[in-house]
Fold:
Amino acid sequence: MFLGEFEYRIDDKGRVPIPPKFKAELKDGVVLMPGAEKCILLYTWAEWKKLAASLTTTSVTRSKLRRLNRAIFATAFRLNIDGQGRIALPVPLRQYAEIEDEVIIAGANTYLELWNKEQWESEKTISQEQAWQIIESLEHNG
Structure:
């Protein structure tokens, strides 16, 4: 489980450190892909394989599944952490998420999110404002 919020600077080669407490979980490599809210999603290799497997058992039509597979797999990157505990963020993903020099790495349970610092502050405020409403709606449905 990934918890917490971490702020880092990207070096001149586009590399960002991984929070040290997550290195063991990420030793088999990571998969990065664009997130829905202009961030980068980072999955462990094991979690990525679970996601891929779930797409093969989905009940959407074949044409929708092909489109979904293109959107997900064609824009994803598999990377390994270097000896200094960093990953090199691919340029297309950095451009998509508007990450230039500062990046926030946020835990999101089974994956991590990498954010532009200003966009993260805005998203964090909205998420925190809505969190209790969402929790309460889950409690009423359960």
In short: Residues 117-141 form the longest helix (25 residues). Residues 5-116 form a domain with the Chemotaxis protein chec fold (CATH 3.40.1550.20). The radius of gyration is 16 Å. The chain has a mean pLDDT of 92.
